[in-house]
Amino acid sequence: MSPSEALQRDIRAARPIATRELRERVRALAAQEPARQPFLARFAWRRLVLVAPATVVVALVAAGVIGLTRDDVSRNGDRSASAGASTVENGLQRQPSTLDQDAAESSAAPSQGAPFATPVQPNAAIAPDPGRVQRYAAELQVRVENLEALSRATQRAQRIAASLGGNVSSLSYNAPRGGIGSANIVLRIPIGRVQTAMTQLSQLGTILGQRFGVEDLQPAVDDLSTQVEQAQRRIARSTRQLRNTSLLAEERAVLRSRLATERARLGELRAGLSATRAEGRFATVSLTLTTEEVDAVVPAGQESKLDGIKDVLVWEGVVALYALVVAGPILLLGVLLWLALRLRRRQQETRLLEQS
Amino acid sequence: MTIPARRQPTRSASFAATAEEHLDDVYAYLVYLTRDRSLAEDLAAETFEKALKLWRRFDPGRASARTWLCQIARTTALDWFRAEARRRRREEGAATSDRFNQAFAEGLSPDLEAALASLSAGEREVIALRVLLELDGEEAARVLGLSPTAVSTRLSRALKKLEERVGAHVTV
User: Fold this and answer.
1) Inter-chain contact B52–A23, Cβ cutoff 8 Å?
2) Which of A281, B5, B14, B77 has the most other CB atoms within 10 Å of its CB?
3) Fold that domain B15-92+103-171 belongs to in CATH
4) CB distance A17–B105 less than 8 Å?
5) pTM for the full model?
């Protein structure tokens, strides 16, 4: 056994033992074990290691949820905004659209001439409400294989309209030899059969885009009906007053003039009511047939959702980067200060223990 | 040096049981650190008072109860040393306390006692932790806030110094 080992053995053998008094003091102290403290008092900073990844996961999930739902929310918002607008035209109040559906996203609208996305599923048309007078408009863009198919599809579209009790409102056909052919056909289809028409028209080729719009005309019809009834009552009253033989010649002239005005007004109202009702009986379907090849891209709905997620993630990244840029130097200084203070404290402790 | 297997403390143990189990360790450590048994008693009581307040935050996954208690004991003793240093500076020239006249423990040879007393507190505490309490290198390093290598170096130097001084006492 070396001298050092012998010393260690001696030190262990003469180990100080706590006195009975100290033991009693500590026992009395231990008897006062407190109740559990609040969460924050127990929070350990190293648990941040667990919290941080969880925060990242939550941020990603939130981005996903917001990105997936934001598209719907904004669309609903657009609907609300459009529902709040109204215009007055020719003395007849036109009610705004109650629902507007763009099945292929606005970027794919035929009128904008942008290439359409991957073929859209057919039969996504919204159904008109048979209990109300509505103005129904639909746009459909369909790709056909070649010029021959374009010709066949154009004829078939006319037959479909006729078979459903509708007609062709306008038609333009362009088929240059060796070039890109197209046909624009505006069909008037009885509103009760518009869904059937859309289904049959969508089978003419590959659907590239479709758009629907429904404008509720029922309030305008109700308003016109009320005005007609009021005009009729005023005419009846004027007629009764004219039967009175005691009227002066001047009074009679005024009443006749008023009666003539009311009758003219009634005629206008009836014509307007009839036209509005007629407008609600037929839907306008704008069919565009084209032979143009379209590159397949990500489906529009999916693309917009992915864009939503991407946008939210980008914003989260921007905020995190901003926070890092602002707080980074402060944090770095804080860490350096903490390290310096720790080193100083260690040195002081060492000196203190060397002197004691 | 043979180190006994560490007992893994469980969080389910009550504070009273933990205090009872490690009271002697804490006390012995403080005796070696302060060279004053009555002061060590006061500091031990203060240590357990602090430990009781911090008990709910004790995490056995980070350190054993003994290591944790020794850390608190060390902080308590350092606070006392600082206060004592300030007091000494204030009362410069006044007579120093005779608190160091007591023996470390019953059973130590006078030579070893004197040699231990001649070491600095820093040297004595590493002996207390590694030899007396038989903490392993990592546990002692955690208590002292040093690396295990630094602890090992400090222990070697302290033991060598102790050996030399015991030898010197015997020779004289």
Assistant:
1) no
2) B77
3) Butyryl-CoA Dehydrogenase, subunit A; domain 3 (1.20.140)
4) yes
5) 0.47
